[in-house]
Write a structure and sequence with these properties.
With 157 residues, this protein is of the alpha/beta class. Helix content is 43%, strand content 21%. It has a five-stranded parallel sheet with strand order 2-1-4-3-5. It starts with a strand and ends in an 8-residue tail after the last helix.
């Protein structure tokens, strides 16, 4: 199974980038994992939040393949414990899923078309985080789930 992380935005903080890369490398010991960044809509000054979300959604959906399982990160989504996330990943792997795509929206979140197309909606928290920190939290939690699946020490170390 391949895990893809899609995010709208740019990379600004080199330390966070390094940490995200470290966890992505760790995930690759269990599943193939990679990041794809989508540029944010560039005409912010003259566009409403809805237009920005819709433009970014068009970009995301144009990259999505029909057989990919899309997991939208959305504050209204279901929250998981780390163990539940591990069960979710293990179940998708056992189903023979080829591609799991976790999607992080831009500054105004994900457009409704992405939310509607998503197979699952997941909320990391009801708190608001900076987007680069969300990327790090997501990568760390997926790595943690992988170690739980394999009953490795990281989860409680």
């Amino acid at each position: 199974m391949k895990i893809q992380f899609w995010a709208v935005g740019k990379i600004h903080d080199s330390e966070l980038k390094s940490a995200i890369e470290e966890f992505t490398t760790r995930i690759n010991k269990y599943f193939s994992a990679e990041w794809k960044l989508f540029p944010p809509f560039s005409n912010y000054a003259s566009a409403s939040e809805a237009i920005i979300r819709n433009k970014e959604a068009e970009s995301i959906l144009s990259a999505a393949k029909k057989d990919e399982l899309l997991i939208a990160l959305d504050v209204k989504g279901k929250q998981f414990t780390s163990e539940q996330l591990a069960q979710f990943l293990a179940a998708r792997s056992n189903e023979g899923r080829k591609n799991l795509v976790f999607i992080i929206g831009g500054a105004y979140g994900l457009g409704e078309h992405v939310i509607d197309r998503a197979d699952y909606k997941w909320s990391l928290s009801s708190l608001t985080f900076p987007h680069q920190l969300v990327r790090l939290i997501l990568a760390e939690q997926i790595y943690r789930a992988c170690t739980i699946i394999r009953n490795e020490k990281y989860h409680h170390s």
